[in-house]
Amino acid sequence: MFWGSCVGRGALLDFVSRLSGKAIISSDITDADLRDVDMESLVASVIDRYQDSASKILGRKELEEIMVGMTMKKEPMQIEVIRSNDFKPAAKDIEPEYRARDVRVERTSSSVTDFVDYFQDRFARLREILRSYGTGFGGVVNSIESVKGYMSGRDLAVVGMVYDKVVTAKGNVMINLEDESGTVKVLFMKPSRKTKDEQNELYDSASKLMKDDVIAVKGKTWNSLIIANRMLWPDVPLHQQARSEEDVAIALLSDVHVGHKLFMQKQFGKFLEWINGSVDNRKDLAEKIKYLVVAGDLVDGIGIYPDQDSELAIDDIYKQYSVFFDFMQSIPDYIEVFVIPGNHDAVQRAEPQPKVGNGFLKDFKRENVHMMTNPCYLNLHGVKILAYHGTSLDSVIRSIPGCSYGEPTTAMKEILKRRHLSPIYGGNIVVPSKNDALVINEVPDILHMGHIHKNGYDAYHGTLLINSGTWQGRTGYQIKQGHVPSPGLLPIYEARSAKISVMDFNEM
Ligand SMILES: [Fe+2]
């Protein structure tokens, strides 16, 4: 069946009408394939391909080829930002009130001893968090070695790191849990249909356990096993989200990817015009912006993935940063800007990552633009923000049931529950330092990430989870993987009312 009977699809309808019969669209192409595509260029490319072709049928495979080819044609352009003369932003008259804390970035030789120290520190920090919930979990925490001598049936509580996990033939979850004293097997029984909600919840939590997770378990001994009846993640405690007294707003963005052919210069240019008061759309919101946080992938970089060269509009890393900092130059100077690197930036790949070096800033020097580490902790007018690029989201999404690229906040919740920004060891590269800077040691009001190019908003235990998406169009890689990004959307948090608004620069 070919398209024609599929009425009611927005992008698909638009595509068909613009093609006006110059190609026949196969039914395996859906609306989702055409989302966030530069429609004008796509139609031109399709017409170009089919004008001398005997077959006029455009299938999904041909569409993918054309889209990948489009990434080769786009040229970078300069963005000229005009400031509006009648823009009188309230934020300009408000004194900035912020504290910004980098994490410690250590260098190690990555020896076996370094990794042992790293995991010991991670365990000690997370155990401390779990122990702080002591009264709610029955008080005493036993060392793992000591419980092995207990008689069967005795109540106990232990804190340990998951060494391994198996699901038994009967569907029970069995883990090996270890602390400095030893290892013990812990069994989470598969609930029967009649069991209560708490037992189902316990089993669901156990099913999501990953190697190296640190947890507290309460249960009873049975021979050499512990039969679990409760489990605690380090987690973030329920808390009231902080608000500012003044009416200021915080804009959050990430994954600009300057230098890639699909960097969306038109939309980013509109954003720069808007923040300068030159666009008549929610000027009331633009006037409140006092802070901007940029969560990494400022540029597309060089040599980040195979054959990246063919997708670059700017193949010089210094030029990529020069364009990015020209954009930062266009941000009004009363807005405090905090910038962290991501996995595409020209700093070490292993996390925590140091701030982008002065060599890339060259002559750029603005007192309101602060280069920070990835991750970093910010307190902006009393609102605590943890900014992290989000490289570990890939391994969390791949490994933990229920997580997906379409809904970044589910994975962000799993990260918060574990109180660790990179919970799955080996999923992305970390520096094995004696101080694990990826442990979430301060509970944030906002956890801000990027990396997977998909916007997402949710709240968990009083912490807002915000993924700020991207300013890059859908790449050939994302088409092949079936990932649909959400470029050109800017989340803004109003700190007095705790309200999130999302500006869509695709429509302006
Ligand atoms: Fe990115």
Radius of gyration computed on alpha carbons? 26 Å
Mean pLDDT: 89
The CATH architecture of the largest domain is 4-Layer Sandwich
* The CATH topology of the largest domain: Purple Acid Phosphatase, chain A, domain 2
Taking strands numbered 1, 2, ... along the chain, how are they ordered across the largest sheet? 3-13-14-15-17-16
What distance separates the N and C termini? 36 Å
Strand percentage lies at 15-25%
The tally of helices reads 13
CATH C-level class of the largest domain is: Alpha Beta
Bound molecules: fe (ii) ion
- What's the total number of strands? 19
Largest sheet: 6 strands, mixed
Overall form: globular
Q: What structural class do you assign from the helix and strand content?
A: alpha/beta
Uncertain stretches = 1-8
Number of domains: 3
Give a written overview of the molecule.
- The chain is of the alpha/beta class and 508 residues long.
- It has 3 domains: 10-70, no CATH class; 99-107 and 238-504, Purple Acid Phosphatase, chain A, domain 2, CATH 3.60.21; 134-232, OB fold (Dihydrolipoamide Acetyltransferase, E2P) (Beta Barrel), CATH 2.40.50.140.
- It is 24% helix and 22% strand.
- The chain contains 13 helices and 19 strands.
- Strands 3-13-14-15-17-16 form a 6-stranded mixed sheet, with helices on one face. Strands 12-11-10-9-18-19 form a 6-stranded mixed sheet, with no helix packed on it.
- Strand 10 (289-295), helix 9 (317-329) and strand 11 (336-340) form a beta-alpha-beta unit.
- Helix 2 packs across helix 3.
- The longest helix is centred in the N-terminal third of the chain and has 20 residues, at 112-131.
- The radius of gyration is 26 Å and the shape is globular.
- The structure holds fe (ii) ion (FE2).
- Residues 255, 257, 297, 342, 344, 451, 453 line the site of fe (ii) ion (FE2).
- Fe (ii) ion is lined by residues 255, 257, 297, 342, 344, 451, 453.
